[in-house]
Amino acid sequence: MDLHNLNPSSLKSRFTTRFLRALTEINARKPIASSSSPREIFQRYRRIKDAADTSMAYSVRSRRTWSKATLWRLRTPSHRRRLASFGRRSSLNKTRTTTTASHRGAVVVQITSRGGGLGVQLEELRELVPGGEAMDLCNLLDETAHYIKCLTTQVQVMRTIANLYSLE
Amino acid sequence: MELNAGTAGTGSHETASERKEVAALESLQFTDEIRRLMLAPATDNASSFTALLELPAPQAVQLIHSPDSVKLTAVHAPTPNVDDFKGSFHFPFDSGLIERAARFSLFAGDGNINVNNKSNSLEPTSYNSTANLQKPVKSEPAETESYQALVSDPTVENRSIKRKDREKVKGSTKKNKTAAKDSSDDAEKLPYVHVRARRGQATDSHSLAERARREKINARMKLLQELVPGCSKISGTALVLDEIINHVQSLQRQVEFLSMRLAAVNPRIDVNLDSIFTADSGSLMNSNFSGMVMPMMWPEVQLNGNRQQYPQQSQFGAFQQPVWGREEVCNNYMTPENSLLSYDSSGNSASLHSNQLKMEL
To answer: Which parts of the sequence belong to the IBH1-like N-terminal domain (chain A) (predicted)?
Structure first.
């Protein structure tokens, strides 16, 4: 078993160390009781998932739009986020979306497809990739490629950790 | 003279045959001289059409530009090259045109363009070198054809070359549309893009910019196709995008599922980072993927409240029970190792081991 299998500054190792740290922190805060209700498990699941996304976005160091968007999404509370996103969307996406605000809190956004048959898929892709709403196609494809690469790393590491834990 | 008379006089029958031989020899010499005479005026008049047609192409080029250094018998063009050359080299018969074309290509290559630089280096060598003509042609057939286009910049084009000449040169690009692909690939790597106008396409700046943008997008789509497994066979942007979207969705679902699994499994926190780095993701998860539907249902069920706890538990329990059984056993081990890790969570395995040893002692 060789110790320095990986480049210590690669994406994988950065993510792994951060994620493990976060995991131990979560486990330290709330150790699993044997009779934990599904609700607790659900809360734990949410925390672990957020920790995974945050640690991955941190490892990328906000060089990318999607990592910035992920960190922002996990940091700002939801009510402030809704207001900010309304402002952002209406200012940036005027060509693409028509927003009809029904009342103050809720915003109904109708997304009109543009540019031939690709419109529907482009909108879907924008929804999937975090921070993808306000990007042109060229950059969006770039972000998607990097996002896919990081997601696969994340899945690989998490799977290995889960296997290790469940093999005991 | 006296000797001649003497020999002529001595034997008449002998001299008849001799005379025939002499006459034959003289005729041979005459033919050589005649041949030389025929070819000499041809070399002087470099631009004559008929003279050029008689010779193979490389020699003709040499004739045009360096009539002194011609060795007609010396250069043997290997046949396949000559065929390529003839097919591709749209031969301008006017030396003035050639000079203008050479000048123009030197003009156009002022920028930092790969293809244009290659064509620049190619043209002077092809015109000035005598014996090395086939080598540059052979090594870069695409470039010889692409320099025929000679259209890299619409402004330069309008400025320096006449319309008639440009179309004549451009006509050869009919055969060479594949060369444009090379230029577009090179264009991807450059700081600013030079796009070649193909035959029959608009050359205004808007369509050029659009074409550059489209080529950028196509290059990125190709990269994405390589990233996503099973996408390289599919043709057509819509289907490829569908595949990409499916892949991203499945990856996100896998992350959710794995975090659910981590939440459920009680972590035995003897974190051995070596084993994590060396152990690859095995196929253990594949059997459990049937449960992947759960993360999707799970948040919805939770939002509905605790009314549906029992069906939840039945679904979840089947998955959970082997894990929970292990949990109770492992609970005892958790606390001391927890404290260990709270000291040193940077994950240096050596220090961890040393701590464990100290605790045991």
So the answer is: 9-75
How many structural domains comprise chain B? 1
Chain A residues in contact with B313 (beta carbon < 8 A): 38
Give tens-digit pLDDT for A32-74. Answer: 776 678 888 888 888 888 888 888 888 887 788 888 888 888 8
Query: What's the CATH code of the domain at B243?
Result: 4.10.280
User: By three-state DSSP, how is residue B143 classified?
Assistant: helix
- Between CA B211 and CA B217 the distance in angstroms is 10
Mean pLDDT, contiguous 10-residue spans, chain B (361 residues):
46 53 56 59 48 50 51 45 47 56 51 44 44 45 44 46 48 45 49 68 85 91 88 85 92 91 68 49 43 45 45 45 44 44 43 46 44
Scanning A89-128 for CB atoms below 8 A from B yields: 117-118, 121-122, 124-125, 128
* Min Cα–Cα distance to chain B from A73, Å: 16
Q: Note whether residue B229 is domain-resident.
A: yes
Q: How close is the nearest chain A Cα to the Cα of B156, in Å? A: 30
In chain A, which ranges are continuous DSSP H helix? Answer: 11-29, 38-60, 65-75, 78-92, 119-128, 137-166
Give a yes or no: residue B123 inside a domain: no
d(CA B208, CA B180): 13
Measured torsion, CA atoms of residues B289, B295, B297, B298, in degrees rounded to the nearest 10: 130
- Under an 8 A CB cutoff, do B280 and A21 touch? no
Interface-testing mutation among A30, A113, A121, with chain B (most B C-beta atoms within 10 A): A121
Domain-located, residue B257: yes
A109: closest CA of chain B, how far (Å)? 22
CA distance B347 to chain A (A): 7
C-alpha R_g of chain A: 19
Q: Which structural domain, as residue segments, surrounds residue B251?
A: 205-274
Which class for B92: exposed (0-12), middle (13-18), buried (19 or more C-beta within 10 A)? Answer: middle
Q: Is residue B286 part of a domain?
A: no
Q: For residues A122 and B241, give the distance between their C-alpha atoms in angstroms, rounded to a whole number.
A: 8
Q: Which of A32, A44, A126 to mutate to test the interface with B (most CBs of B within 10 A)?
A: A32
Question: Of the candidates A152, A144, A156, A134, which has an alpha carbon nearest to the alpha carbon of residue B225?
Answer: A144
**Long-range residue pairs from A86-93, CB within 8 A, at least 24 positions apart, any chain:** A88/A133, A88/A134, A89/A133, A89/A134, A92/A133, A92/A134, A93/A133, A93/A134
**Domain locations along chain A:** 3-29+36-167
